[in-house]
Amino acid sequence: MMPLVLVILNYAGSDLDEASRKIDEGKMIINEYARKHNLNVFDGLELRNSTRQYGL
């Protein structure tokens, strides 16, 4: 998570207000995508478990 925060701060030019706006914008985009595609918190785990190969 720290590398993502550093990238956002670097992109925002070390301006905390701009970085906060970018983080909020990203959250809004992710939430909108999840709502449009009917995703919930369980989808990621279910997808990972269903595609995992157990050495077969």
CATH topology: Helicase, Ruva Protein, domain 3
Average pLDDT, rounded to a whole number, is: 73
N-to-C terminal Cα separation, in Å? 33 Å
Uncertain ranges: none
| Total E-strand runs | 0
Run of helices and strands: HHH
- State the helical fraction: over 70%
Percent of residues in beta strands? under 5%
The CATH class name reads Mainly Alpha
What structural class should be given to the helix and strand makeup?
Answer: mainly alpha
Q: What is the overall shape?
A: elongated
Can you characterise this structure?
With 56 residues, the protein is mainly alpha-helical. It is built from three helices and no strands. The radius of gyration is 16 Å and the shape is elongated. The model has no long low-confidence stretch (mean pLDDT 73).
What brief labels describe this structure?
56 residues, mainly alpha, Helicase, Ruva Protein, domain 3, 71% helix
Secondary structure topology:
Blueprint: H1 2-11, H2 16-36, H3 43-51
Quick recap:
This is DSX isoform F2. The protein has 56 residues and is an all-alpha fold. It has one domain: Helicase, Ruva Protein, domain 3 (Orthogonal Bundle).
